[in-house]
């Protein structure tokens, strides 16, 4: 059901979930809702990690990336707990001490609070393209790493000297991974300020594991995009389910040293590489689906899908569970995840459309269901 108060929504988002970076460049379908948790959806539909299923969402501005400086970014599971909502939580720049175990910290750093092993580092990456639809995973260059992350709500990143973006700006993303092999992408529109005109854009390589004396990729690297193939892209790094110690992370064992990544070569040295990147840019054709196969999941009588309500997804006087389900099926566009689940109240005839299926909870007056949308290339 619709979480009308901030507290209710936060509880849901924190308990289920995960984090987004919040700044005016965030691709925020919940905009202008100050209580939005849209950028953290979908939570578990990891085939939709690309652009966090928010490619069609609009940002409300551009985040500056200060070349050669530092940048503090806010993380939260809900905009309410950011400077664009009700403000940051207490001591946002401090790592919780003592570290909470068995509970989720208030800003929702999820797995890491329960399993300290999940502090597997995070990073910022940039694609030197203004058009987000033309960006592919291999365009992103990791430029700043914090190994002890996510542990702080307000995290400072060290920024290397960087070349200028195209006039329309760049595309950036915050990336982090956890023990559950979930690879999170939290994209935002960005632009390099005070750029270094002598530097150029390298072609990043896919990082490799160098835990046991293997050789790390030393120069520019892509993020650790891994997991399930997406609707548009295959992952770059394979999952290693059985060997957690070797699974990908933003740590030195994958060639990611702490702090600013000085991976932007001087122009003379990089002329050949730049030419290659430009050719790839112009050769690229965005993917588009030939069709989207829609099917419905089983109707769960006596269950509610809590949380995850989409904008304008609260309907009254809906006669039946089938009608509520049809409303969900008809809610498009599928690629931005408009409706993936629904709940219908048998007594009040209210219908709630949801962008994500959280764990269904028992409720004698409710019927809940899901809608699957499979992208066919
Ligand atoms: C969008 O950005 C403008 C200009 O910075 C600001 O005044 C406005 O409050 C922002 N809107 C939202 C919903 O954040
Ligand atoms: C990005 O910054 C450059 C200066 O480096 C400026 O000319 C350009 O207008 C900016 N673009 C956006 C989209 O902010």
UniProtKB/TrEMBL annotation:
One of its GO terms (cellular component) is extracellular region. Residues 316-357 form the Apple domain. Residues 1-17 form the signal peptide. Its main location: secreted. The lineage of its organism: Eukaryota, Amoebozoa, Evosea, Variosea, Cavosteliida. Belongs to the polysaccharide monooxygenase AA14 family. It comes from Planoprotostelium fungivorum. InterPro entries: LPMO_AA14 (IPR054497), Pan_app (IPR003609). This is Apple domain-containing protein. Its cofactor is Cu(2+). GO terms for molecular function: metal ion binding; monooxygenase activity. Keywords: Copper, Disulfide bond, Glycoprotein, Metal-binding, Monooxygenase, Oxidoreductase, Secreted, Signal. It is found in: Secreted.
């Amino acid at each position: 059901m619709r979480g009308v108060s901030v507290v209710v929504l936060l509880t849901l988002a924190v308990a289920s979930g995960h984090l987004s970076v919040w700044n005016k460049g965030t691709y925020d379908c919940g905009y202008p809702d100050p209580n939005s948790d849209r950028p953290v959806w979908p939570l578990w539909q990891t085939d939709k990690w690309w652009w966090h299923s928010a490619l069609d969402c609009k940002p409300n501005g551009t985040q500056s990336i200060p070349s050669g400086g530092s940048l503090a970014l806010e993380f939260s599971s809900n905009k309410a707990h950011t400077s664009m909502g009700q403000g940051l939580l207490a001591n946002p720049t401090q790592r919780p001490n003592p570290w909470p175990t068995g509970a989720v910290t208030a800003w929702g750093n999820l797995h890491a609070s329960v399993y300290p092993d999940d502090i597997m580092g995070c990073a910022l990456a940039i694609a030197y393209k203004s058009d987000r639809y033309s960006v592919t995973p291999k365009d992103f260059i990791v430029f700043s790493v914090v190994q002890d992350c996510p542990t702080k709500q307000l995290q400072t990143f060290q920024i290397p000297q960087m070349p200028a973006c195209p006039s329309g700006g760049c595309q950036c993303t915050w990336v982090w991974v956890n023990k559950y092999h979930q690879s999170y992408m939290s994209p935002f529109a960005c632009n390099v300020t005070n750029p270094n005109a002598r530097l150029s854009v390298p072609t990043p390589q896919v990082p490799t594991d160098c835990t046991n004396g293997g050789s790390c990729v030393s120069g520019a690297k892509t993020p650790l995009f891994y997991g399930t193939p997406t609707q548009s892209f295959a992952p770059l790094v394979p999952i290693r389910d059985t060997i957690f110690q070797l699974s990908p992370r933003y740590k030195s064992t994958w060639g990611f040293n702490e702090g600013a990544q000085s991976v932007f070569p001087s122009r003379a040295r990089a002329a050949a590489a730049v030419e290659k990147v430009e050719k790839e840019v112009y050769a690229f054709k965005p993917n588009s689906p030939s069709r989207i196969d829609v099917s419905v999941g089983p109707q769960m009588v006596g269950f509610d899908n809590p949380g995850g309500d989409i904008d304008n997804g609260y309907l009254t006087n809906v006669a039946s569970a089938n009608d509520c389900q049809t409303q969900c099926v008809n809610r498009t566009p599928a690629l931005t995840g408009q409706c993936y689940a629904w709940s219908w109240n048998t007594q009040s005839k209210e219908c709630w459309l949801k962008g994500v299926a959280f764990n269904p909870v028992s409720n004698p007056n409710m019927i809940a269901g899901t809608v699957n949308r499979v992208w066919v290339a």
